[in-house]
Amino acid sequence: MRKMDNSESRYKSPVYKVMAIPVDKVVANAYNPNVVAPPEMKLLEISIWEDGYTMPCVCYYIKDKDLYELVDGYHRYMVMKTSRRIYEREHGLLPVVVIEKDLSNRMASTIRHNRARGTHNVELMSEIVSELTQAGMSDRWIERNIGMDKDELLRLKQITGLAELFANKDFSLADE
């Protein structure tokens, strides 16, 4: 087992110092390449409405401007800026942690955060859809709470190949 030196034993991750910052004091950076499609943005808004902010945004504090520049969490920030119901419920305060890094390291941090999130595995998503269906959740419930459209839900159900996922559904042949 590796022995920690004094600097490591005193290190405290930023997540242990979450602050509530007025969203008007937070600004986007100019270098985030991450893009989220409108359906996923809507799902993020639903997620934040249903579950609250469960992850703080990561920022760098610009002392001379008294502003917080985003390193990670741009889309959570945008939900606060664009969703009146969330802004009002949260009193305009965004959960933020601050990192102390130069610009190059902030840019690298942004990319690491984006890439570390990964993508969804189709087989695992199919299994989740199967479990939710078998638990009695309606297609509408799954579409709303998982952020899927009808076609995507149908494709995931087809992947599992389980006939019971289509139970109680009316199907008709297309006109020839």
Task: Give a short summary of the structure.
Helix content is 45%, strand content 14%. The chain contains eight helices and five strands, in the order αββαββααβαααα. The protein has helices at 6-10, 38-51, 74-82, 84-89, 103-116, 122-134, 139-146, 150-160; strands spanning 19-22, 26-27, 57-62, 67-72, 93-98.
Question: Can you walk me through this structure?
Answer:
There is one protein chain. This protein is an alpha/beta fold and about 180 residues long. Helices cover about 45% and strands about 15% of the residues. Strands 1-5-3-4-2 form a five-stranded mixed β-sheet. Strand 3 and strand 4 (about 65-70) form a beta hairpin. Helix 6 (about 120-135) packs across helix 8. The longest helix is centred in the first third of the chain and has 14 residues, at about 40-50. It is globular and about 55 Å long. The model has no long low-confidence stretch (mean pLDDT about 85).
Any chance you could write out the topology, listing elements then pairs?
Layout: H1 6-10, E1 19-22, E2 26-27, H2 38-51, E3 57-62, E4 67-72, H3 74-82, H4 84-89, E5 93-98, H5 103-116, H6 122-134, H7 139-146, H8 150-160
Parallel strand pairs: 2-4, 3-5
Antiparallel strand pairs: 1-5, 3-4
The count of helical stretches stands at 8
The general outline is globular
Structural class: alpha/beta
Described by strand count, sense and barrel closure, the largest sheet is:
5 strands, mixed
Summarize model confidence as the mean pLDDT: 86
The low-confidence runs, each spanning 5 or more residues with pLDDT under 50, are none
Please write the string of helix (H) and strand (E) elements. Answer: HEEHEEHHEHHHH
Q: Helix fraction?
A: 40-55%
Radius of gyration: 21 Å
Percentage of β-strand residues: 5-15%
**Total strands:** 5
- Give the terminus-to-terminus CA distance: 71 Å
Query: Order of strands across the widest beta sheet?
Result: 1-5-3-4-2
